[in-house]
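Posting for a labmate who doesn't have an account.
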Amino acid sequence: MNALATIEQDATGLSLPDTLPFEDWCDLGRTLLTNQRRADWMVADWAKHGREHFQSQFGFMAEQVGMDTKRLVKMAKVAEAFPESQRAANLSFEVHCEVARAEPEQRLLLLVEAQRGKWSQNKAHERVEETRLSTGARLDDDDHEHSEIMEVIRAWNRLSGPDAREYLWPYLQHASRNGFGPINTGVTIDA
């Protein structure tokens, strides 16, 4: 039975019958996710084409379709990083987005690793960060999370020397053992 045939769809939602069998529910999920992956790649290829052929109108078009220009640019860059022959059908577009941030010579190796490990977006992000840091690649300046990390690294490096770092280190360890909450300098730390 085709689960899509028994389900009401509209532009903003999906109504599922209470009698939908588990197997049909699973099949529907697979179909929806496959369609989402295809649609993400089609939008990415469309955005790539637009950047190549209609650069001056690209921002206007993004507004017209109700999409953030930065998101469309990011999608176009992912399509540029992964031609159709290099895309992994069983990985989400988001995993490809993360892997696209790696150095070009690392991307295919990371995709193979992602396929074997069935990576989530978070796992891909972590692994790409490890790779970028181990190869000396810079963190992305336009990524809010990375800019905060860079601020912490710069602050650490600006400390007056080993004595200041030795003083701070037990507080950092205490914070990490306690769920990475705020550092409370009023707590007595046994060094």
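Reply:
Got it, the structure tokens are right above this. The chain has three domains: 21-81, 84-158, 160-191.
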